[in-house]
Amino acid sequence: MIINDRILNRIIIELKKKSESELSGVYKSLFKGEGIEFDNIREYTFFDEYKNIEWNTSSRMGKLFVKEYKEERNIPVYIAVDISSSMNVGIKGKEKIDYAAEISTILGAIALKNGDPVSLTLFSSDIENFLPPLRGDKRLFSNYTLILKNKNQEKKKTDFLPLIEFYLNVVKRRSLIFVVSDFLPFYFENKFLGLSKKNNLFFIMLRDPVEENPPESGIFNFFDPESYMFKSVDFSDREALYTYKNTYNTMLSRFKKSVLSKGIELIDLYTDSDPLKGISSYFTKKVLKDRKPK
Questions:
Q1: What residues form DSSP beta bridges with 185?
Q2: Per residue in 35-84, pLDDT tens?
Q3: How remote is the C-alpha of 183 from its chain's centroid?
Q4: d(CA 207, CA 209)
């Protein structure tokens, strides 16, 4: 199917509507603006804090109401998308790069809905493209199309160091940073700590289900698009299957432990799942966790 501007607009508009309806409240609850001016009183929702309940109105009306305040929203949101060769893989789910384009649109839509400017960075072994923080729906279209235009480009590997150094120079105030990648081969760059100390840093890890659970019979041809080499593995051989799964799960476990031990948020998504549901579920759990007494 040829993806033209009309089709892209329809896709983006649909993602925007769903994102705003499902994520706007939880996003606003998680990432606070700086305003404190009283605005009005409205009915209580699940994501409101108890301290904002207006008890006099609630008692009079027989249901909960909260005080609402105007926020001076200006939290820069930086979305970094890995466009290295491994992101063009799609065995059981969507190609990772297509999935990343949807995630970029979802995150951008809820940020823009709440008045926050959005930036996009494409990287591989270097910085490939950078769009500075901007408000407006045109940013969503620009993000989505730019990612798709970089599909199946010249074979490149992933290197996080140029991205880290670039953001350390570009990001001048506390911001939200989302790094979207498959993070293969599950290595953690310690210099991410410089970004995580000054910003809210999220890793969004994309995984094709077959990478974790390959077929348990027959010959499976693994292709590493970053080295451009094939390796045939016969998973009818139980020892080969066990060795693969054990190695994969060990590397994945070490990676996750490293990331979480540094205070970085990790959102783990499969490319055959709904990205909106995955992000919404993670943010909702985080809201509930942050509300628990410490």
A1: none
A2: 555 567 888 887 777 778 888 888 888 889 887 766 566 889 999 999 99
A3: 13
A4: 6
Non-local (6+) Cβ contacts of 60 within 8 A are: none
Query: To which residue do tokens 């880290």 refer?
Result: 164
Kindly state the tokens that stand for 279: 């992000």
- Spatial separation of the C-alpha atoms in residues 204 and 80, rounded to whole Å: 10
| Cα distance between residue 251 and residue 11, in whole Å | 35
Closest to 25 in 3D by CA, of 53, 50, 40, 47: 47
Amino acid at 210: V
Burial class (CB in 10 A: 0-12, 13-18, 19+), 176: buried
Q: Spell 261-292 as b/e; 16+ CB within 10 A means b.
A: eeebbbbebbbeeebbebbbebbbeebeeeee
Q: Which of 122, 145, 101 is nearest to 3 (CA)?
A: 145
Write down all domains in the chain, each with its CATH number in brackets: 36-70 (no CATH), 77-291 (3.40.50.410)
- Let me know if 190 is exposed, middle or buried by CB neighbors in 10 A (0-12, 13-18, 19+): exposed
Q: Within 13 Å of residue 198, how many CA atoms lie on the same side as its CB? A: 14
pLDDT digits (tens, 9 = 90+) for 146-181: 998 888 776 678 899 999 999 999 999 999 999 999
